[in-house]
Design goal:
Blueprint (H helix, E strand, L loop, with lengths): L2 H33 L2 H5 L16 E10 L4 E13 L2 E8 L10 E11 L1 H4 L2 E12 L2 E16 L2 E11 L6 E14 L2 E11 L11 E15 L2 E14 L6 E13 L1
Antiparallel strand pairs: 1-2, 1-12, 2-3, 3-4, 4-5, 5-6, 6-7, 7-8, 8-9, 9-10, 10-11, 11-12
Amino acid sequence: MSLHRLLVASSLVLSASASLARADAADDSAAEGAASARAAANDDSFTPGLTHATGPQLAGVTATATLDGATHANTVDLNGEVQVWGPARLVLRVDNVFAASGGKARPGIGAAVQLLDERRHGVASSAYVSYKAEGFTEAEGEIEGLVSFGKQLGPVHGTLNLAYGQDPDNIERDGEIALGLHVEPIHGLFTGVVGRFRDALGSNGDKGTGILRDALGAATATYVVGRIGLTASAGIAGVKFLGKDSMQAGAEAAFSVGTVF
């Protein structure tokens, strides 16, 4: 065999090997992405106190247990989303599932629409509209609208929530702003901070709790194991009740576990 033919044959073999290696790497990367909750964790899907700007591919569910020293209440909340069609998602929730601390379990249903995709528009955004009933046997409740924005800025990811809610008679209403920032110091571990402020906007607050305004500042850490995200947060919460002159503060801790499909 001539030297020229040998070189051509060798080049073809190397090219084929390289193509197979790239294909295997791409398959491994796709498999990892399909079986991992890293993207959802980076989008704050499991972070207590935040609503994500990018929905799950098919579905996602998160359970959160909160220990609030400011209100002396312990609750467990469930949130779920299911992709319905195109950018539209069905949103289901139950606040205070076990009706703990003298409260009621409050079911809710709503919809979310993906407004912006970060890869195409430079920022991710989803709009949410939901109705949260006062209880499973009570139709009266609150309508809430929320817009969530998400953005990756180098190693830092930020999520911003803007929300407004009111009852159908506009007697009770509240506005909320929340911001979360985090980094991924090691693969699958996300650490950051969350801040949230909610105000009754001149109304008498939530008639069930008597809360006029509340605030939270906390540190968070999320660890991903396959399709599951585990989050813990700890910080200081403040709350002002109707008839009180000042806010009362206390430690707050939250633990959540979620999965995506």
